[in-house]
Amino acid sequence: MNDQATLKDIAKAIEKRDIWAIFVHERPDGDAIGSGSAFYCWGTEMGKKCLWGGTHPVPKVYEFLPYVDVYQVLERVPDQLKGPDRAIIVLDTSNLSRCVAGIEDDLTLIVNIDHHMDNQRFGHLNYVDPTSCATAEIVWDLFKESEHPIPKDSLLGIYTGIITDTGHFTYSNTTSKAHAIAQDILSTGINPEQIFRHIYANRSLAGLKLWGYAFIRALSTSNGKAVISWLKLEDFEKLGADSYDSEGIVNQLLYVRGAAISALLTEGEDEVRVSFRSITGVSVRELAQKWDGGGHPQAAACKLRLPLEKAVKTVLQTLEEYTQDV
């Protein structure tokens, strides 16, 4: 189950299956939802019976994407989705602990498509390419390997996945290929301003105030190379904000002059989620791995089962030490 398959092999294998179950990682981002939406469109256009979902709802900013209305929040894979004529396609998910339970099955074809370097290659067919700017880029390549045309609705998801994972073509993972795919997509008449406004100009007032709380609390390490902030559970309750309103804050913290690393801690019911970002040449994946997390060199995350105050002190102290050699 660890070998790398070719995209042509994957296309041929899933085209033989009548039923596709498409799953994305917990707390899905634009790449996960965009890739999932694109895959669902492609499958239904082919006449496949498709289901897609994950452990958490679709963030409101991505509700403009096709077939988001049929996305299902699930804890486990339903038994009826398993069998020799079925395929379970897992997108943008580095390990199965980040997805719906019950995916492993000997009778059902498991396909794993991802661009995370720490992917555990849990599928019967795996295609993992850390050089791809987004899983959506791999989905585009897969569609191109197939003899079936790419529906225009799929292009919305692919474009969304690429622009969100590249920070609208500003992050270090932005490549000439990412721009070339975007050019091909835009040439079909897809409206980039419309997509931008859906994703980036669609913030609630509660979300705006939540960002303010994070900015007020922001502090840096003594050498100024890392900036950290945090959000309390009561912040969300007081403002009526949801967890997705905090998306993007950690990126803004990295814009502080001199910062090489940023971290945002978000308090949950029984754990604290930590999101890390870093500039090119500085990896935060190893930081996240200290607490059994993971991700990309410039974007990683983990969870701490500590009270928020202690978690903040722990991460800040670790960053003080980690940035000495940055």
UniProtKB/TrEMBL annotation:
Pfam hit, one: DHH
InterPro entries: DDH_dom (IPR001667), DHH_sf (IPR038763), DHHA1_dom (IPR003156), Oligoribo/pAp-PDE_c-di-AMP_PDE (IPR051319)
Domain DDH: 21-162
Molecular function, one GO term: nucleic acid binding
Protein's name according to its UniProt entry: Exopolyphosphatase-like enzyme
Taxonomic superkingdom: Bacteria
Residues making up the signal peptide according to the UniProt record: none
Residue ranges constituting the DHHA1 domain according to the UniProt record: 229-323
